[in-house]
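Reposting from the mailing list since nobody answered there.

I have sequence plus structure tokens for a pair of proteins and want to know whether others read the tokens the same way I do. The first protein:
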Amino acid sequence: MKNIANIINFLKMEKNNYLLINQVSDEIGIFYLHVIQFFSTSTGININLNADVDNISTNNDLFELKKINVFITTSAKKIDQILSSNDKSIVFSDYKNFKKYQKNCQTINGYNFSNDLKTFVKETLKIENQSLIEICTKNPQLILSETTKYLLNKDNYLKDMAIDSEVNKILEIRKKIFELKRSDNIQKLFLAIKEEVNYKKFSFLTY
């Protein structure tokens, strides 16, 4: 509960500040990214997923307070650059940097993700389905697709045994997206995101 509350409070803070997340794995990182996007939507905050460290601002601009940059990096040099800027930012990194910077900014340790996932599903989304929680705990990157599917069709959730195939397919697409976010190939990233959207639309029709 504490980590989810910390994310909400971070998003609501008016001043520019920083949040560093030890994502542990790409899959857990995707879970936390979804939580951030979920709450940012309700608070009217724009999340910049393609943030460039070299383009962050060193000037304090009040009109930029509703924008939050999201970075994925294990480079301490880049993190130093981010923390010295005036942009409100979230950094997905590793445990080494989590330990190094936990006194310099707000932090979340992804090793606690299972409790955070249960809190988000049960208390925020008001979903009590144990099968969904177990699937998302094993595959945290599927939090968006599984919860959306459940909310669209609660009565028939998981009655189709094709779920294993779907899990593998979405996992493959999500991994591709996360890897592309670390590169400069915007076109391939766009196509991968489009592929995910189209696949989820198709999968919803089968339930």
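The second protein, same order (residues first, tokens after):
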Amino acid sequence: MYNSQERIQTKDYFLIAIVAGAYLLHMLRNITELYSAFPIMISGVSCLFYLTRREKIDALGFGVFLVFILTYLLPLIYSYLWYPGEDYLIPFARYLYIIPFAVFCIFAITNINSYVYLLKVFAIFILIGGFSIFYQIVFGPILWFPDASEREGLVRFSSLVGSLTAYGIFGGLALPIIYFLFENKLVRNICLAVIVMAMLCTLQKAAIANIVLFVIFLSLSSSLLTKLKIIGFVAFGLPVAIFIFYYLDVSYVVATVDNILRLKEGSGDSDVPFFQSILDRLWFLPSQLYEMHGPSGMLFGVGMVGGSGTLGFPEYPMAHNGLFDLLFIGGILNFLVFTTLVIFVLQRLSAAKKLFATQSFPHDVLKVSIFIYVLLLINMLFAGPLHVQPYGGVAFYAITVFICLRYDSFRRAATLEK
């Protein structure tokens, strides 16, 4: 019996790694467009291995998730009602690209172990993406990555994770996974250092913001000793580290700090100020879509064109705000259903946390899940519909599907713990 369960778990782990890896290596489509079909195909084939397996699912959670998916599909129809003359082959492909992964999660992520394994796979690919940035700093750009740009006199490189802005956002999602769920302390510290340094090398304000949010999360959710360590690091260790970086003129770190704090004369001249950038994304940029599509466009949604460059329409203005993207893609209904789903998942995560002792493994898993979910939502305010993109979609649907459909896994774990 034990060997049988072990073989099933090994098969699950293998399929999870293959399917998640296929999506997280989405940049390979820049080598050949044929790769775009591979994650979809491998998801479908992998689901076939689970057809004979009968696993209980949460009826309420499944209902909430099903309503979300059905609402998610409505903008496909809206597209032809508002802009019937557009070509929708690529936009539809981008919009639906991550959905087969969500379906795979329904079949494969059936217990806490497989769920944690998927989160670790995600973090490992983020780590690999960090090394891809270091490689380009030393050896020059990788030709099949998105084009590099310049900021503060330095070259900004994209990564295996995606565009120039992707790593500063999605790197932050991996930090709590590594800190709380990687068992080996040495491996954990090395991985954290690599990802943080890679995030700084993106020269992104979002990278700094996400690192700060991670530190705040740690200070709020850790023991008193950890809180004191964080206070000590922020008060003494961080200023010393910044001084050393400036003294040694570590260019990428110095340029990133200058871009936020404007410590040097003339620093940040090549970019919009930090707080101005926030204000732009909260209304100025979304207002351009409002002027184009009007109040009815925001109320009912205009379909794929509402997603602008994210969904393959670079000629239309971008909101750079995921909540407005939800409105302009699918209207108030799309926004309300998404918001309901998010509240439902966060409420369940919060309720499940109360079932476990503070230092227990399931408690850490729930803590990590809450932080990733909240961090995704915060970044959506300033980036776009992250759940549509491969890395954001893998994180979003891993948590959403597991909490909606397999909530009983935590109840069973709590019973065993007692």
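Reply #1 (J.P.):
I read it the same way you do. The CA atoms of residues 219 and 226 lie 7 Å apart.
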